Amino acid sequence: MSEILQLAQVSKRYATGQIALSSVSLSLAEGEMAFLTGHSGAGKSTLLKLIALIEKPSRGQIIVNGTNIVRLPRSHIPYYRQNIGIIFQNVQLLHDRDVFDNVALPLLIQGFNPRDIGKRVRAALDTVGLLGTERKRPVQLSGGEQQRVGIARALVKRPRLILADEPTGNLDPELSQDIMRLFNRFNELGVSLLIASHDIALITRMNKRRISLSHGQLEGDA
Amino acid sequence: MSTSPALSPHAWLQAHLDVARDSWRRLHGNGAGSLLTVLMMGCALALPGSLFVMSQNAAQASQSWQQQFSVSLYLSDTISADQGRALLDGLLKNPLISRGEYLSKADALQEFRQYSGLGEALDQLEDNPLPAVLIVWPRAGTSRTALENWLDEQRARPEIRLAQADVDWLERLQALLNFGQTLIQLMGILLSLTVVLVVANSIRLEITNRRQEILVMKLIGAPDGFIQRPFLYSGTLHGFLSGVVACGSILAILARLEDQLVPLAASYGRSFELQGLSLQQALSLIGGASLLGWTGAWHSVWRHLKEIEPE
Fold this sequence. Notes:
heterodimer; A: 222 residues; alpha/beta; six-stranded mixed beta sheet; four-stranded antiparallel beta sheet; B: 311 residues; alpha+beta; 10 helices; 71% helix
């Protein structure tokens, strides 16, 4: 099985001197789903930010789909991000646009044909169970629904790798379970997922690979 | 993995149309703020614009005066009317001279009586003190030196007491006009810069207001070109509208001035028509204003978009 994501000896030291990650090595196979766990401040978010190129590592290599992204020039970063799906804890929807326009944004950025955009957006909304909410504004939706709009937005460009940072952080257990089931379905379709979460009970139930971080170091991988 | 599908021309056009419509919607939605900005820019452009049109009118008028200026050759009293006319015929053979006319002593007195308003006082005179005059019009475009040479020749003739061509004031007027035009150009540059800065500031505020949106777009992979597009459109739209405002203001200013200038010109016995803004000039003004708007927006985008990066 080929690897979609590889981290080799990755360290991140902030300008303040704080060491967020030290010498972390791990890899994610194509089509694999893994959870990233650890206490708050263990380095989960930093790890995802490094993969999303929101931050650059102080040392080490990050190879995504065969490309070492650490050396990617600034102008290439947007195109790199277009090919991965990122889901945030605080959803990051645009509140002055309706659900359809929010989900369509990645396709608009990539210059898709308006006809294809409509089809793809409806398919993505259907997947997350929100078909029919196209013309609603994000504020008219519940927290769980907003999170699902965020997931649809990550999904609409059909990425091979999805990164999720505490996607159920603000949701009750039942909604969290729904979201996890959704991720499971994507995984069955061949999408690779790396999900940061501190919800141990939920992760245990999912019965997937678990990568644990503690104080910026790899603690366990099972 | 770092490739993006090439945009089809249709999608590209559609994307631009969407952004243009969105810019208009935002400008419209912003209401009073945008209106004030556009009006401010419009006024800044109307000032040099209307002065420019007026200086053009003045230049045109001075040119037509230059074509009309004449030389007066005052004859000695010993010259008879026939001799005077023969002299004129001789002068008209010179290619420098386009036309001429002979004014006898009596004609000169009559003309003087008419224009000086000294009718009764003149009646008191025992004899006519005015000399007969040859008035000749040099051909348009005659050089100053050729004219001076010709005048010197005439002054040397015994029949001619005095030769007068008052072109100095025309030259002074020309110099004044050149000075005025330079002043207007400098003012134009300064006020264009003002327009750029006003747009830049307005776009900077817009960028600040849409900071969250820009962050989200960057996170989901929007390249700089995509993010800056709405701001560039907004700046260009501001410029375009200010150009339209400036054109309207200039037309209004000219109409008001013409009301004043027509009676003034009539009092000098001249008909006068103010040349307005030509269609081409109006379009250039609007196009130029749009370009200034784009420049201001580009400057803001270039300075501030880089500062907004996801953390």
